[in-house]
Structure formats: C-alpha cells, structure tokens
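REQUEST ID: PR-0412
SUBMITTED BY: lab tech R.K.
PRIORITY: routine
TASK: structure prediction, single protein chain
INPUT:
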Amino acid sequence: MKKSDRIYQELNKKYTDEEIVESFVFNETLTPEEQKTVDEAFRKIRLERLKNMSEAEILFGNLMKFKLRLQDYFKRKGFEAPFSFSSQLKNYIRLSKKNNKDFADNIGIHPTTLSRIANGKENPNTALMYRLEKHSNGEIPAHFWWKLHARELEHAIRTDLEQKIQEGEKVKEVLVFG
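STATUS: complete
OUTPUT:
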C-alpha cells in the first residue's frame, strides 16, 4: 500500500471526503509552457519587490545571509580558510558599508588595531567580539565570533608542527609516569 493511500485512509476515519478536499492543498501539474509562464510572473514580482526594498531591509537581508552562512559552517567539521576570523570580519565590515576607519570608530577601537586583526596579524579579544555583537544589534552573537576564532586556533595548533617542536625544545623537564 502506498504511503499516500495510508494517509488517506487515516484521514478518512476522521473527516469526510469533502472536508479532506477543502482542508488540503494538492500539487498541481502544469505543462512546461504553463510552468514557464508561472515562473516568469513570479520572477517579475520578485524583481519588483527587490527594487522596492529599503536600505535597512537590504542590510538586514545581507546580515541574515551572513549569519546563516556562519551557522552552516559551524555544522561542518574542521577549519576552512574562507571562514577565518579575519576573512569574516572583512565580510562583516563590507556588509556594513563602512570603510575601516569609520567602522573602527563605530566599535571604539583604533583603526590600526582593526586593520591588524582584519589582516590576521593580531588575534581578536573577547571585548571585540562583544562589540561586534552589539554592532549587529545582537544578530551575530559574540560566541559566533569566538567559534570562528577557536576553530582557527585549533587548526593552527594541530598543523603548526614546526612551532610545536621549537616550543617543545624549551621544556627542561617532562612529567614521567611509572
């Protein structure tokens, strides 16, 4: 028995055929020409809606797209270079439509510090992450920024074997077990 037949039988125990028809939407099969016409009409409506969006609506839409991309990244395993803290900070600054100097002024840090962090020359601190959360009006939480940074740090620790050896040579005594 098909799944749809089983569903119908269960619904038929509770509802009449007329009630089922009135309450449920069934997919309509369109010819390719009809589907093309419907798609074209939808596209026109969508383009018209996009043209009439305010700057605030566009900014919010871009911010939500940024947030969803981060959430998708967090679901995946491991570090990906395009999702480094510095890359995402640059994307966020671009999204805000500010230059680095104005953005730095908005979040209360020196432009040189912002530049060093955005170019991966300096690590961010939690204060910056709190400021970024506030700047996004809470839409991009501080812990999202921390997750980006933490993944990058973990990747560096796992893959920088040269520094691991150099730092290990500075240890004078290791713990001995047994």
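NOTES: The chain has a mean pLDDT of 92.
REVIEWED BY: pending
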